[in-house]
Design goal:
35-stranded mixed β-sheet, mainly beta
């Protein structure tokens, strides 16, 4: 009996060992399968040494994961939940960076850990050196994606030798890239621009949140080499500086965005062709302060949309085929401003179905400040309410050349200067408070069309519309309080009031 029990016991032990061996083999096969799957498509940064504890510097581990993904022909670099402290991350073609829910990429405060791409020599920005430094950098790449739902934190990295003696590296910066996508992520507290790219094409920014920092998205091309095919859709901006800005654009669509800024909503500082801004909300005051405006850190929003080629430095080229439609604005310094300076021309600009309220500083204006006029501007189905409240004694008396931001003018509703054809159709201009200035002034225009223009008329303002050197004025159904105003042309060029 004892011998039998010993034999049975030995059999059970051998059976258990066999089962354990089989289980280990199965787990080994499963591990091999997962490893094979990772190498074929997904590269977890923790596999390459990233700790994600918010303290250890994970730069090398993250760049190893990206390099491995690239060497495998492309795939996904995964950031599981954690806080990944890092310096510059170098992207590669055909790599998708995915930040899982609960994953945050954080910029280190060690400025020595940042590097930059090199813009082409033909760009004036090429000489600006470390200004191009970035937390995430791409250069000469194709088919790159950065996706969420995780967070990229620029960490307000302070650089006392940087721009304005405080700005640090951009959060995402890339040069000469094609098919670059950002979607579903949140970018907070950028040390400079949240997204900055140059001479890049087919860029898609979709459902991205920009909170804090300076510019949200800033992109620049160059003369004869614009950024082409850019789409910014469904994004939320709460920025301290301009939400969207740049120059030398072609075929750009900005749609379905909510734009809040302590500076400008959209600022164009150079030429652009085929630009569409559709179905967007621009509102102030800013949720995030303008960090370089002094101790008070102002929050008032400036222009909703300001198109100002040549405002910062000389640019050459055309602003043309621009459509702004179905846009709402609230508490902005000016709704739409268009200025031309030397070297730039403007073709057709159309604004349709714009509604704005709480406009506190400047009227809609269209102005050319050199010999080339704006060709054709149309405002159709527009309703704007201005704060008003300006007394005649304190009103601006002369129109001077613009600086870089919207300024007060001698009229409160609409101003045009040096335009071939300007059309206002079904436009309503109203005041929240009495204002002693005229409503509309147009000077040096080839053809002015006013069709169904309504405006607040106040006692004491005997000449609500002033025309100077306007060759042709076509007035239809333009009145206030039931009165019709028709132009009276003097024999010689000069002021032409509508009475």
């Amino acid at each position: 009996m004892r011998t039998t029990r010993l034999i049975l016991r030995a059999f059970r032990i051998l059976l258990a060992i066999a089962l354990l061996v089989e289980a280990g083999a199965t787990r080994g096969n499963e591990s091999t399968d997962r490893s094979s799957e990772d190498s074929a498509g997904t590269f977890n940064v923790r596999t390459y040494g990233a700790r994600g504890d918010g303290v250890s510097l994970d730069t090398d581990a993250i760049n190893r994961a990206i390099a491995a993904c690239s060497e495998a022909g492309g795939g996904k670099v995964l950031f599981p939940p954690g806080r990944y402290l890092t310096g510059t991350i170098r992207l590669a073609s055909r790599v998708a960076v995915f930040l899982d829910a609960g994953a945050t990429l954080i910029g280190t405060t060690n400025l020595a850990m940042y590097s930059r791409p090199q813009p082409p020599d033909y760009m004036p920005e090429a000489r600006w050196g470390k200004w191009h430094n970035g937390l995430i950098v791409g250069e000469n790449l194709e088919d790159v994606t950065i996706a969420g739902p995780g967070v990229i934190d620029g960490n307000k990295v302070f650089d006392p030798t940087g721009e304005e003696r405080m700005r640090g590296p951009h959060t995402i910066v890339f040069v000469n890239c094609k098919r670059f996508k950002l979607r579903d992520i949140t970018i907070v507290d950028s040390a400079n621009y949240a997204v900055f790219f140059q001479v890049s094409d087919q860029v898609e920014v979709q459902n991205v949140k920009f909170v804090g920092g300076w510019d949200g998205i800033h992109f620049r091309g160059a003369p004869h080499r614009p950024c082409r095919g850019v789409m910014i859709t469904g994004c939320l901006f709460q920025t301290g500086d301009d939400s969207i800005a740049g120059r030398y654009w072609d075929n750009v669509i900005i749609s379905g965005c909510i734009v809040n800024s302590s500076c400008n909503g959209l600022r164009l500082i150079g030429p652009a062709t085929r630009l569409i801004v559709h179905n967007c909300l621009f509102y102030g005051p800013g949720e995030q302060p303008h960090r370089t405006s002094g101790a008070t850190r102002r929050t008032n929003m400036l222009s909703g949309i300001i198109l100002q080629p040549g405002a910062w430095d000389a640019t050459i080229g055309q602003l043309d085929d621009v459509l702004i439609s179905d846009v709402t604005m609230q508490s902005v310094a000016s709704p739409v401003t268009l200025w031309l300076k030397r070297g730039n021309t403007a073709g057709r600009v159309t604004v349709e179905r714009l509604t704005a309220g709480g406009v506190y500083r400047a009227p809609i204006s269209v102005e050319s400040w050199w010999e080339s006029p704006v060709t054709n501007v149309v405002f159709r189905d527009v309703s704007v309410q201005y704060d008003g409240g300006v007394a005649l004694a304190t009103a601006v008396k002369q129109v001077t050349a613009p600086g870089v931001d919207a300024r007060s003018l001698p009229v409160w509703g609409f101003y045009a200067r040096n335009v071939e054809t300007v059309t206002l159709e079904n436009v309503r201009l109203t005041l929240a408070r009495s204002d002693a200035r005229p409503v509309i002034a147009v000077e040096k225009a080839g053809c002015l069309n006013l069709d169904g223009v309504k405006f607040t008329r106040l006692p004491g303002v005997s000449t609500p519309i002033i025309l100077t050197n306007v060759t042709e004025a076509n007035i239809r159904e333009t009145d206030a309080d039931g009165h019709m105003y028709k132009p009276r042309f003097p024999a010689e060029p000069g002021q032409k009031p509508l009475r």
